[in-house]
Amino acid sequence: MRQITAPEITKAVKTLFLEANYQIGSDVSAALEKMRLAEDSAIGKEVLGQIIENNRIAADEKLPICQDTGMAVLFIEIGQNLQISGGDLENAVQEGVRRAYTEGYLRKSVVKDPLFDRTNTGDNTPAVIYTRIVPGDKMKIMGTAKGFGSENMSRCKALTPSEGVEGFKRFVLETVRLAGPNPCPPTVVGIGVGGTLDKAAQLAKWATIRRIGTPHPKAQYAELENELLEQINHLGIGPAGLGGLCTSLAVHIEYYPGHIAGIPVVVNICCHAARHKEIIL
User: What is the pLDDT of residues 118-152, one digit of tens each?
Assistant: First the structure.
């Protein structure tokens, strides 16, 4: 059985969140450039140009892409033939997040209690961690620094089976329309459908970190993603909500088998600072 140490995990998580906050992914950069060429609004083109320049400066000078450096969310796949020594996974991951946000001078945005003690924890922990056991002897760590200007625009709904695909599409478009300029468009729209409501929420977050330009492997869902993206980009919200074609860079859908009596749907919106990285140990 292969072994890795807890300090290795801590180091990887620290690196991941520093890089995610300083350097936007090539998939997001390419999508922004493509949308700038397609944008028919002069103001929209200018906004997209400023976003692209902001991202370049952040990468060159190792500065945060956005002042909201997000809440750390991680999806970790652990090979069943992998053993962690010298500590436990939970503490190793939280320590990595802590070091990234304190040593990297990233804004700390996590409070101790959402309702009764909104005191800042001072190090951006605890992170939200999802784990999955998979075959093999490696560990894949995927992380996103999720800002809350866009998180706050997310919505969920338990659709009835009779509402079907058309009800699903109406809810997604309604969510984006109601969000308007608030989630800092252009956005990435992550959608989870099926399972239970909590499973749909997890899928929706996962959908936001799928690489842009990678369609759903199932043709029906890939077609639905393209249809929704086209309809969203005809809402007229545009870059920064100032009008234009480019309201969203991508629509990603993830599904899970569900109960005969319902269709849970969660729409999780991510701003143009779609910060996600992955590391394999």
Answer: 999 999 999 999 999 999 999 999 999 999 999 99
**CA-to-CA distance for 184 and 196, rounded, in angstroms?**
29
Question: In the chain, how many H helices and how many E strands?
Answer: 8, 10
Pairing outcome for strands 187-194 and 248-256: parallel
Q: Mark 31-63 as b/e (b = at least 16 C-beta within 10 Å).
A: bbeebbeebebeebbebbeebbebbeebeeeee
Q: Using CA atoms, how far apart are residues 213 and 120, in angstroms rounded to an integer?
A: 37
Give residue 80's identity as a one-letter amino acid code: Q
Domain ranges for the chain, please list them. 2-20+65-146, 149-274
Query: Encoding tokens for residue 121?
Result: 């924890």
Tens-place pLDDT, residues 177-198: 999 999 999 999 999 999 999 9
